[in-house]
Amino acid sequence: MYRETRKRKIIIFSLIGILLLMAIGYAAFQTNLDVKGNSQITSN
Question: What are the helix (H) ranges across the chain?
């Protein structure tokens, strides 16, 4: 009985970990960096 519960917990936590990794990977590929602006450098 203890073995089944342990195996089930390992499987559940593994699936949650894989799901989190997939979410992080998706977020990383969906980010867009858009930089617009002007800059001026003056010296005395």
Answer: 2-30
pLDDT, tens digit, 9 for 90 and up, residues 3-20: 889 999 999 999 999 999
Please compute Rg for the chain using Cα positions. 24
Structure tokens at 1: 């009985």
Q: Which two tokens stand for residue 25?
A: 């990977």
